[in-house]
Amino acid sequence: MEARRTSRPVIVGSVPIGGLAPVAVQSMTNTDTRDAAATLAQIARLADAGCEIVRVAIPHADALDAFAGICAASALPVVADIHFDHRLAIEAARGGAAKLRINPGNIGSTEKVDAVIDAAGEAGIPVRIGVNAGSLSERVRDLDLPLPDKLVASAVEFCEHFESRGFSEIVVSAKASSVSSTVAAYRMLAERVPYPLHIGVTEAGTSLSGTVKSSVGLGILLAEGIGDTVRVSLTADPVDEVLVAWEILAALDIRRRGPELISCPTCGRCEVDLIPIAEEVERRLRAVGSPLKVAVMGCVVNGPGEAREADIGVAAGKGVGIIFAKGQPVRKVPEAQIVDALMEEIAALGT
Amino acid sequence: MEARRTSRPVIVGSVPIGGLAPVAVQSMTNTDTRDAAATLAQIARLADAGCEIVRVAIPHADALDAFAGICAASALPVVADIHFDHRLAIEAARGGAAKLRINPGNIGSTEKVDAVIDAAGEAGIPVRIGVNAGSLSERVRDLDLPLPDKLVASAVEFCEHFESRGFSEIVVSAKASSVSSTVAAYRMLAERVPYPLHIGVTEAGTSLSGTVKSSVGLGILLAEGIGDTVRVSLTADPVDEVLVAWEILAALDIRRRGPELISCPTCGRCEVDLIPIAEEVERRLRAVGSPLKVAVMGCVVNGPGEAREADIGVAAGKGVGIIFAKGQPVRKVPEAQIVDALMEEIAALGT
After folding, report:
1. CATH value at residue A79
2. Interface of A with B in 5-64 (CB under 8 A)
3. Which residue among B47, B125, B193, B260 is least packed, with the fewest CB closer than 10 Å?
4. How many angstroms away from the CA of B101 is the closest CA of chain A?
5. In what helix (H) or strand (E) does residue B315 lie, and over which residues does it extend?
6. Distance between CA atoms of residues A247 and B212, nearest Å
């Protein structure tokens, strides 16, 4: 794993992005923003799942009143997501947004962009320059360049314009639905701009393909030290985006929220019904906050080895489970008691 | 993406691994091997899902008869997975295995290993030297080295022993349950041995964490050109392992089995109920064999851009969907007809 890229941090509400700050997890509501109660309820679920920054779309002016109420009541910093109409961005900045996200491809004239920059400056909030392959300006789209170069050209051009107005509270993103284009674009951006990078694969698809594409793309970038805040895009409940984002960070030992579960794939050697045991342990571990390593293993090949390396583990076989704690076998229990016994030993650790 | 590492190919049944061969997808049965009918039924399901090589455990001698029958009837080449008892490996080679997988940490004395090598040589089949962090030999486990170095030392030592017997039909793996240890081990192995590499993160966990860990770990390696055959380990139905493996290969444009679905995460801007539409399209696309790009988008921000770039796409809004084919809008349909209309346009492409 490579060292983290250095960047100039910004603050979104109370959450820093960039510099030495932990890589922040974010998501986006998919409720109707005009329905403040539904949107706040979804924000509360996202916060419970570990979301740290939430983005909310403001498609039309009739969402602005609700947006201000959402910002006032939200436990998480709220980012206003604006397209096409710069006046919405200005009103969102005045209404309590902790950050604005605009897209250089579709916000209109330089004068309109400048008005947004000035509004963000007055409100003292950062702006994400959020370039997206699906919404490049016509001028950039027609350049004779590969897609990653177009994304970066668009982002850099906008950064330079912000700097020319004396504004540098910037976060940058440049997303494509192709993993390789996304990775290539962020590698270039990491060299070209000093700002924190918001990373994500856009329109990544449903739970299965979206989880895989996001894990591959963000995994490659994060392993290279690139990325200061992550958004996983799934055509699914946004809570799932947060769970996947945390799993990606945990997979690379960047951040961990709660225990790690090691469990074997089961094979013809497995003598207990391991899949439901592992799933039940996973479910109960969600209530445990500490970063324990828990192993649930179904046979004698790798079972004792993994169970011994974990904080708590079980190596199961022939209808019984041997529970290991801190490397030592401590109990032997029948299959039906494995989950309870594991959880008791975890509780006994006092974590 | 880096160029593929060169390696000396081997043939497993009819499937080449290494060299210029496509990265092969494999999985492992979790039925009781003694139940040949159940194991063959699972192999058929795995083959339907795109599995190209299947591994079967032989825990005890009483599985050998069934194993020979499975090899004879299987549509996929069958790899015999053997631990502890070298006689099982010898009998499996004679019984029709297309490859043996043994583990240097637990097969016993040099004489026993030599007997396995000779049996593989006589049967004309390759052997995978499958090192696993959970089952290192005591001698290697006690070396004062980081885990990845231990894994590689164990694998290289075994390769050299095979070579000293004149046997080089070798595939190598060195798996850990930690993504970073796995990646580090394979990067070293790629430099140290000329053989094809079987890559995987072992004991990766349940569907969610296992999918993410495998996608991150295998994604990093494959993007560096490392990996000739992949096994995703999930504590779940092995068919899911195959689906995830294909999604990883597709995410990096290495191989694709059927269409790619681009779909947006939905947000407060979405005016149709997109999640079930995307899921239904994903389900129906499984019957389409060609590598089409299909976009299912919920609003006017990135929708028309992505739909235009896809072979077939829909940009939905306000209860209707505009269907795009080859970059041009071709139909406008009510929300309830979006899926049918998309599938009709796909059929009309004649692919």
Report:
1. 3.20.20.20
2. 28-33, 39, 55-59, 63
3. B47
4. 13
5. strand B312-317
6. 6
pTM of the model as a whole:
0.94
**Cβ pair A214, A232 in contact under 8 A:** yes
**Neighbouring-strand partners of residue A57:** A81
**DSSP single-letter state for residue A157:** H
Distances (CA, A) of B228 to B7, B8, B11, B18, B202: 9, 10, 12, 5, 17
What are the CB-based long-range contacts (under 8 Å, 24+) for B143-148?
A: B146/B181, B146/B184, B147/B176, B147/B178, B147/B181, B147/B185, B148/B174, B148/B176, B148/B181, B148/B182, B148/B184, B148/B185, B148/B188
Centroid of chain to Cα B275: 27
Range 218-257 of B in CB contact (< 8 A) with A: 219-220, 223, 233-236, 238, 241, 243-244, 247-248, 250-253
In a domain, B341, yes or no: yes
User: Phi, psi (5° rounding) for residue A92?
Assistant: -65, -40
Judgement on whether residues A179 and A78 belong to the same structural domain of the protein: yes
Facing residue for A268 by CB, picked from B56, B233, B282: B56
Minimal C-alpha gap between B267 and chain A (Å)? 4
Residues A154 and A216 in one domain: yes
Q: How far apart are CA A126 and CA A342, in angstroms?
A: 46
What's the gap in Å between the CA of B35 and the closest CA on chain A?
A: 10
How many alpha carbons lie under 13 Å from residue B145 in its C-beta half-sphere? 17
On whether both B210 and B90 belong to a single domain, the answer is: yes
**Cβ-based contacts of B211 with chain A (< 8 Å):** 208, 211-212, 215
Query: One digit per residue, pLDDT tens: chain B, 351 residues?
Result: 899 999 999 999 999 999 999 999 999 999 999 999 999 999 999 999 999 999 999 999 999 999 999 999 999 999 999 999 999 999 999 999 999 999 877 888 999 999 999 999 999 999 999 999 888 888 888 999 999 999 999 999 999 999 999 999 999 999 999 999 999 999 999 999 999 999 999 988 889 999 999 999 999 999 999 999 999 999 999 999 999 999 999 999 999 988 999 998 888 888 889 999 999 999 999 888 888 999 999 887 888 888 888 999 999 988 899 999 988 999 999 999 999 999 999 999 875
Stretch 115-174 of chain B: residues touching chain A, C-beta under 8 Å: 132-136
CB-CB neighbours of A228 under 10 Å: 24
Q: What one-character-per-residue DSSP string does A32-77 give?
A: -TT-HHHHHHHHHHHHHHT--EEEEE--SGGGHHHHHHHHHH-SS-
The stretches of B74-137 forming alpha helices (DSSP H) are 86-94, 110-123
For residues B25 and A346, what is the distance between their CA atoms, to the nearest angstrom?
37
Same domain, B147 and B202: yes
SS3 for B334?
A: strand
> Domains in chain A: how many in total?
2
Q: State whether A296 and B235 contact (CB < 8 Å).
A: yes
Asked if the ipTM is above 0.90, the reply is: yes
Are residues B278 and B234 both part of a single domain?
A: no
Answer whether B202 sits within 8 Å of A267, measured CB to CB.
no
Calpha distance A174→B268 (Å, rounded)? 21
User: Would you call B247 and A180 a contact, using CB atoms and an 8 Å cutoff?
Assistant: no
Owning domain of residue B22: 10-251
Sheet with A260-263, strands from edge to edge, namely A260-263, A293-297, A312-317, A320-325, A328-334
